[in-house]
Structures are given as C-alpha cells and as structure tokens.
Amino acid sequence: MAMETETNSIPAIEFRDVSLSFDEKQVLTDINFKLERGEMIFITGASGSGKSVLMKLAIALERPDSGQILIEGRDVAQLDETELLELRGNRIGIVFQEDSLFTGLTVYDNVAYRLDEHNVPEDEARQAVMEVLQFVGLEQDAEKLPWELSGGMRRRLELARALVGWRSIMLFDEPASGLDPLTAIHILDLIVRARDIHGISSIYVTKKLDEIPYLATHRARQTGEDVVIEEVTSKHEFPPSRVIVLDEGRIVFTGSVAEFEASSLPEVTRLTHAENGTVLSDYVTSDPWDKRRRPHDRLL
Length: 300
Fold this sequence. Notes:
Strand order of the largest sheet: 6-7-8-3-11-12
Number of domains: 2
Helix content: 25-40%
Largest sheet: 6 strands, mixed
C-alpha cells in the first residue's frame, strides 16, 4: 500500500525547463508543468504556438535541446529505444489529429497491432481488443476496413487504438477536429468515460475552446452496468483540470477553466474572443450513441 501511494504521488508527466528549436527557430522555451495523477490539462494557443510539438515531446517522439521530461518519474532521455517502445506500448497512448490508421488492416487488426508488437498472448489480446471496440461502439465492425467506415467511426477507431489495454496516460491532439458537432460530442463523451471510469491522466490539445468547459464540467458515473455522463454544477465536484496557454512557444497562462475564461491577458483574450465554430450538447444521457442527443446552445 505504501509503495502504491508513493507511485500515485509521482506526476504522470513532468516538464522541467524544456526548450526546443528547429533549424535555429525557437519552437518551445522554458516549458515547466506537471500532469498530476487523474488530472486533465487543456493546452491551447494560436496555430504555430508549439502545441503539437509539445505533444511529440511528451511521448518522446522528439528530444528537447535542453531540460528534462519525466514520464511517471522516468527521465525519457535516459531510456533506450527498447524502453521507450515499452513505455509507449504499455503506459501512454496518443490520438493525433491526422488519420494514422493502417488502411490494409481490419478494424480489429488496427487495434491489435500494438499488442502484437509487444507479444501479448492471443487470448489476452483478443479480450483487450474486443473490450475497447465495445467501449467505442465498433464491436460489430471488427472485420471492416478503414475505408468502409465514416469519418466519425474512423476517429473512434483511432481512439480505440490508443486506449487498448487502458494506458494510464493519454495525449489527445485535437481529437474532434473536423467532425460535425454531434460526432464531436460522441468523441468527447468517450474521452470523459475513459478519464473517469479508468482513471486516466491526460493532456488535451485543442483550438476549439467550447470543448474545454464541456470536458471540465462533465463527468462519467457508473450506475450498475450503465455509465451516465452528467454535467457537474458544483465546482467542488469538477474533475481535476487546468488550462495552459502557449504563445510563441512559451507558457503565458496556467490556471483553472474559470480563471482562463475570466483572464484579461491579451494572449488569452485573443483566443476567448475568437469565433471557433464548435457547437456542443448539454443533453445528459447514459448512452453516448443515443440518437436523441442533439447539438444545443454553445457553452462559450
């Protein structure tokens, strides 16, 4: 029990004075933050502010010029390629905004691919794959190829690939980008369910600011065999979350969602007063695929 408590006290991800440049252009400068266990950090900022680069650093696809990045207390700079692959395979998953599916593999094999890479026994892998396909509502489409799926279904498949095995850390890089409002809500509800039911720590990158209050004020609750997604009205019951704003590769704001919405910093107001076009729903239902769900009033 003492060892478990000690492990849970270690941040899921920690950036210490991280800087990175490409071709003499400074991309990130002196980035410092901790993603605590069970927390969701929203990272936003204008295009080109360094959000996607930060995500690649967080999963060790890029190396910083200076500073340290720790994943569950392990300095990624000290890990060899085998250890990095194991870390990505077992502890951390990422959903990029770009389509990264294997077009020649079925839905099932797309999800099973990473487990096969890590030599997970076939019976165990099948159970994990079917569990996560059921979670995203694709269990009946396991033998289809990606081109047979709609855009929203492909995005759910991307989510399933990242979640399979229920990794403790998830990185989301604009996962609802380019989707219609109703489909976007389905994706956000799945992320809420994964976060709350499976205790996932996550970084969520977005330019769609309406997504931030939705994710920060909705939670999933298990009621028998069902999962209900509900809006939380008391700030004391909000899921743990923070907003980080990047501007030209620097952190210019860190605070709660309420503090973000009320901030008068120029770098923040340029974002909060921009028209971002996302329409979300506040319709509460136990089933995120219920056809009664509908777009509703905007949250920002």
